[in-house]
């Protein structure tokens, strides 16, 4: 299994974060009894001091460099990743994508329908690179803006409906797509540090949502056990 994490600021993480990618790496090490590799063209975290990706200051410096691969970016969404995914899949020989995208698109770039069109473009490019690619997709998790901006909250809800339809339409036996459940019990006050980006508790919830989908649908690894990876 060759896994690629694809996402926006919630996935790349900021300097000092562990990231949910790290939590997933720990989970796989603890419960997946087969070879796997984490791939992706990027390694860095977002650096608030420069406003760019470039930090290697992970919360755990023992997170191996070879396991830090990803295709995630601060301020990047489906719009940005669709043109990049084909080359990233080819270069990394990825066969499994764990994707958390959409909030930034809806917040700054595209409406729900346009964002859903970019989802379909993304998978056309990914499948051209690997016709047997499989993926788990996270629905958009409404952030603090959605609490104060009803039209934005409505766009998030509509996009999640369109995302579910896209997953159903595009799912194939040889290239399965799976819509994960939103992180169980997510609370923006408890699980984020700013109303959007996950703190340690939120990182575990995101990793658990992906891990649960992988385990239940494809029997990959075991149930998520935060105690195994909470350091």
Automatic annotation (TrEMBL):
<feature type="domain" description="SGNH hydrolase-type esterase">
    <location>
        <begin position="5"/>
        <end position="203"/>
    </location>
</feature>
<dbReference type="InterPro" id="IPR013830">
    <property type="entry name" value="SGNH_hydro"/>
</dbReference>
<dbReference type="InterPro" id="IPR053140">
    <property type="entry name" value="GDSL_Rv0518-like"/>
</dbReference>
<protein>
    <recommendedName>
        <fullName>SGNH hydrolase-type esterase domain-containing protein</fullName>
    </recommendedName>
</protein>
<dbReference type="InterPro" id="IPR036514">
    <property type="entry name" value="SGNH_hydro_sf"/>
</dbReference>
<dbReference type="Pfam" id="PF13472">
    <property type="entry name" value="Lipase_GDSL_2"/>
</dbReference>
């Amino acid at each position: 299994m060759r896994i690629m994490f694809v996402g926006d600021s919630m996935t790349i993480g900021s300097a000092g974060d562990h990231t949910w990618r790290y939590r997933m790496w720990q989970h796989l090490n603890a419960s997946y009894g087969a070879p796997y590799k984490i791939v992706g063209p990027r390694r860095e975290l977002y650096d608030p001091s420069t406003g760019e990706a470039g930090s290697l200051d992970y919360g755990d410096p023992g997170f191996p460099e070879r396991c830090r691969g990803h295709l995630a970016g601060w301020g990047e969404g489906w719009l940005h990743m669709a043109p990049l995914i084909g080359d990233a899949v080819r270069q990394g020989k990825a066969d499994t994508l764990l994707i958390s995208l959409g909030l930034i698109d809806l917040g700054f770039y595209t409406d729900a329908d346009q964002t859903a069109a970019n989802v379909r473009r993304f998978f056309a490019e990914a499948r051209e690179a690997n016709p047997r690619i499989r993926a788990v997709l996270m629905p958009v998790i409404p952030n603090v803006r959605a609490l104060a901006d009803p039209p934005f909250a409505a766009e998030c809800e509509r996009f999640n409906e369109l995302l579910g339809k896209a997953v159903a339409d595009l799912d194939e036996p040889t290239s399965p797509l799976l819509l994960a459940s939103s992180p169980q019990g997510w609370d923006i006050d408890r699980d984020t540090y700013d109303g959007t980006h996950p703190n340690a508790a939120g990182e575990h919830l995101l990793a658990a949502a992906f891990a649960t989908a992988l385990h239940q649908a494809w029997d990959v690894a075991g149930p998520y056990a935060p105690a195994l990876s909470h350091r």
